[in-house]
Amino acid sequence: MRGLWLENQQLSFDDDLPLPVPGEGEALVKVRLAGICATDLEMVKGYYPFSGIPGHEFVGEVIECADQPELIGKRVVGEINISCGTCDECLNGRRTHCRQRKVLGINQRNGVFADFCSLPYTNLHEVPRMIADEMAVFTEPLAAALEIQQQVHIKPTDKVLLVGAGRLGQLIAQTLAICSCEFRVVTRHASQKALLSKRGVEVIDESDIPSGEMDVVIDASGSAQGFRIARRAVRPAGVLVMKSTYKGEMTLDMSSIVVDEITLVGSRCGPFEPALRLLTAGLIDPSPLIDSVYSIENGLMAFDWARKPGVFKVLLKP
Q: Against a cut of 0.70, is the pTM above it?
């Protein structure tokens, strides 16, 4: 099997990787298309100690599934958290916080930057016929964007600010643009501004951010500086959603958080079915985010390109 292998912060291409062997309750999936995200780029930098096949955004076709043979031949996308189903978190409905969880392409589980991957069939969602592969591959990050509205009740009267409009930020912007709130995005890059403007999203410069006036602020910048901008913008008793992960520790003035009674919300994975419904209805269109498509053999070139400033989604095709 061909694929990319990450070890000791070194990414390499290998054309002789072992084929995944599905365990009980699992399916073997042929990867049709996979997406490189910011987390994948950070993994190469050492964000999380991982050895194996990286990658977690994908659309594929089920090749084997002994427990659910009706899935064979179906196009699917997959949730990335593999949970035990028996710990207290799982039994209380918090499977994405399973105490023994493995995470596709991130933690103790080979990912999707290869010809094949395996996942529990309960993680899989069938892709409706009208959704092209190029749309379906965005299901996981779109679900992550939708998680914000599952966690925070955004009212029509709310002033909402998004800091950062990269790969994930653009999807967050699309999900919030179809709400009735007063919504703005702060970003520096011309390419990001252009995409947002085409969708009628108001874009503002950092110097124009009202200090301490926004009801809900979302940080999707991926940087400590972006978090500081977001913190400055949120009003007292407002909500600050952290959609970024940061390597190492970050300095935070906790006294101001307490005094201003700011609600901090960590936000990670999200619901797949609503994401697929939005794609089916054409309410979300991620296609303008596709920058380029590389073959899996040219995966190292794809990563080099994806690292460049201003580049949106780079896809890998096995």
A: yes
